Amino acid sequence: MVKWVRSRDGLVAGVFEGLGRLYGVNPIVLRLLWICSVLFFGFGLMLYVVLAVLMPLEGRERNYQSPMILGVCDRLARSWGQDLVLVRILFFGAFLLSGGTMFLVYLLLHFLVPQMKYVRAGI
């Protein structure tokens, strides 16, 4: 199940509008925090682009559920009971921070995490 979705009503890509609805926060507060992260820390622009790419647009969540690269994040999200978008964001962040080494872990998990038919059956 995907909870993190971009809103169709947002100003640019709908990221803050979607997250605001999910967590009950005014999107203006999220935008102000984002501006501070851009001005003071410098990572806000990249974070926004990553969220805009990884979060599905409202109403297109079903298309987003299909496995992308080997389906590891989808299988992990289902077995952990977490949002697929959150798992993909965590893996993408770990990939960037590890300098690409996380890709090897991802490949290893492909062989270790049970396929979807087993996860759905509860095995």
Question: How is this structure best summarized?
Answer:
64% of the residues lie in helices and 0% in strands. With 123 residues, it is mostly helical.
Characterise the protein shown here.
The protein has 123 residues and is mostly helical. The chain folds into 2 domains: 1-61, no CATH class; 66-123, no CATH class. It contains 8 helices and no strands. Mean pLDDT is 79; it is low at 118-123.
Tally of individual domains = 2
Helix content: 55-70%
The DSSP helix count reads 8
Q: What multimeric state do the chains show?
A: single chain
Secondary-structure element pattern, one letter each: HHHHHHHH
Q: What separation lies between the terminal Cα atoms?
A: 19 Å
Structural class: mainly alpha
Poorly predicted sequence stretches spanning 5 or more consecutive residues: 118-123
Largest sheet: none
Mean pLDDT: 79
The shape is globular
Please report which band the strand proportion falls in: under 5%, 5-15%, 15-25%, 25-35%, 35-45% or over 45%: under 5%
Number of strands: 0
Please give the radius of gyration in angstroms: 16 Å
